[in-house]
Amino acid sequence: MLLTEIDHIAIAVRDLEAAVEYYQKAFGATIDHREVVESDGVEEVLMKVAESYIQLRTPTNPDSPVAKAIEKRGEGLHHIGYRVDNCAEALASMIAAGATPIDKAPRPGSRGTTVAFMHPKGSFGTLIELVQE
Hints:
InterPro entries: Glyas_Bleomycin-R_OHBP_Dase, MeMalonyl-CoA_epimerase, MMCE/EMCE_epimerase, VOC_core
CATH topology: 2,3-Dihydroxybiphenyl 1,2-Dioxygenase, domain 1
Family: Belongs to the methylmalonyl-CoA epimerase family.
Keywords: Metal-binding
Distance between the termini: 17 Å
CATH superfamily: 2,3-Dihydroxybiphenyl 1,2-Dioxygenase, domain 1
Shape: globular
Strand order of the largest sheet: 2-3-4-1-5-8-7-6
GO molecular function: metal ion binding; methylmalonyl-CoA epimerase activity
Strand content: 35-45%
Domain VOC: 5-133
């Protein structure tokens, strides 16, 4: 089994501060990590849930994939991040199984992770992120 656990559930939001406040009030969640990921055009906040995270993401520019997703589908579930021990191995396995890669090779992600995204078209309608810590 290449997947070790759910790393995070990513939610695209227009107003990051409002979303953080909501999760704090509704669930008592606290911010575990906050980062601007220039390469993805997003600012994200991670809120710890057991060994996983809720990742709230907002676009930092109108051309980012998250901005386009919000424009097309509105706010809400953006992707699921699966934790793996070896991102390159998991990426190759998914491609061999018929998945459509967005990233042709693993690349740096937030929190010092290594990541690779898979297109929803090849993954039953779900944008998937492979995350190696």
